[in-house]
């Protein structure tokens, strides 16, 4: 009986090890396949942005009526990934679905405007305060963001041409909006601000052809949501050809500075989502369009388990 028990235990251990090895190999294979599919989606987005840049050579105007702004609806990949193009073979494949979007990062207010200069510009501070008020953020949110960002991105010393890249003391430099919780913001506050603010590598103007009305209203003193909504509705029929065209829909006292408002963009956020049964893998990439060159500045992958 002892020998039989020992042999059964050894056999069970061997079966378990074999099962575990198969599971690990399957997970590694699925991870590699998912990475290649998402890389293909990113290359597709870069190609669309490249074609848009070629079409805008004569007059650079980016708006929501262009092909890049059309999201890719969730499409089943099982049919295309099947070895044989038959209905039976397609049904035998994994349930894989791909979707994605390209968003204009310059449709949001860039928080880099708060760290330029020895002192924060009063106008930029008012812009952030108005945005925080619109999303019902807790009191003091704007002050906390400004203090945290200026501590993480100190102004250059006298005679220096750019801010120091490393800070010996103070908070870590957030690389994206999701990392603003390092500055003491709650996850709910960051989620409320995310549709309206962005943190890019350098200061950029807001694209009036793609910005939501909340950002347009906060960008200028003396502009309410109704005036901003007139711009949003007007650009649907005819996109703004230059920033000054927005003056027709704003109070006469509003001054549109080219450094703060534009009608073209250089930064885009590409999001690809791959759903495999109950698991979803999302990849977000920040792309800078430099002429006809698409440079991937940052890439982030998030794995989620979907609720049934």
UniProtKB/TrEMBL annotation:
Keywords of this entry: Cell inner membrane, Cell membrane, Membrane, Transport
Occurrences of domain T2SS protein K first SAM-like (ranges): 107-202
Entry's localization field: Cell inner membrane
InterPro entries listed in its UniProt record: GspK (IPR005628), Pilin-like (IPR045584), T2SSK_SAM-like_1st (IPR049031), T2SSK_SAM-like_2nd (IPR049179)
Domain annotation T2SS protein K second SAM-like: ranges: 206-253
Main location: membrane
Transmembrane segments: none
Family membership: Belongs to the GSP K family.
PANTHER family xref list: TYPE II SECRETION SYSTEM PROTEIN K, TYPE II SECRETION SYSTEM PROTEIN K-RELATED
NCBIfam families for the chain: T2SS_GspK (NF037980)
Name this protein carries in UniProt: Type II secretion system protein K
Source species of the chain: Roseateles asaccharophilus
């Amino acid at each position: 009986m002892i020998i039989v028990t020992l042999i059964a235990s050894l056999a069970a251990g061997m079966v378990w090890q074999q099962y575990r090895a198969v599971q690990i190999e399957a997970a590694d294979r699925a991870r590699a396949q998912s990475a290649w599919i998402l890389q293909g989606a990113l290359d597709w987005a870069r190609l669309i942005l490249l074609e848009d840049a070629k079409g805008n050579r004569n007059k650079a105007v980016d708006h929501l009526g262009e092909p890049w702004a059309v999201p890719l609806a969730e499409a089943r990949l099982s049919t295309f990934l099947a070895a044989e193009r038959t209905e039976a073979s397609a049904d035998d494949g994994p349930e894989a679905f791909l979707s994605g979007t390209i968003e204009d990062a310059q449709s949001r207010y860039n928080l880099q405007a708060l760290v330029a200069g020895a002192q924060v510009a009063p106008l930029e501070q008012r812009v952030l305060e108005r945005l925080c008020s619109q999303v019902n953020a807790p009191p003091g949110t704007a002050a906390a963001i400004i203090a945290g960002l200026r501590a993480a991105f100190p102004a250059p010393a006298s005679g220096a041409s750019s801010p120091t890249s490393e800070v010996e003391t103070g908070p870590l430099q957030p690389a994206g909006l999701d990392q603003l919780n390092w500055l003491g913001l709650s996850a709910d506050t960051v989620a409320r601000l995310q549709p309206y603010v962005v943190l890019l590598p350098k200061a950029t103007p807001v694209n009036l052809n793609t910005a939501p009305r909340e950002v347009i209203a906060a960008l200028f003193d003396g502009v309410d949501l109704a005036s901003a909504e007139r711009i949003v509705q007007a650009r649907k029929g005819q996109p703004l050809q230059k920033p000054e065209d927005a003056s027709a829909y704003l109070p006469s006292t509003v001054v549109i500075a080219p450094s703060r408002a534009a009608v073209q963009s250089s930064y885009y956020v590409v999001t690809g989502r791959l759903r495999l049964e109950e698991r979803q893998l999302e990849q977000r990439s920040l792309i800078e369009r430099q002429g006809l060159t698409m440079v991937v500045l940052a890439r982030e992958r998030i794995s989620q388990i979907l609720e049934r």
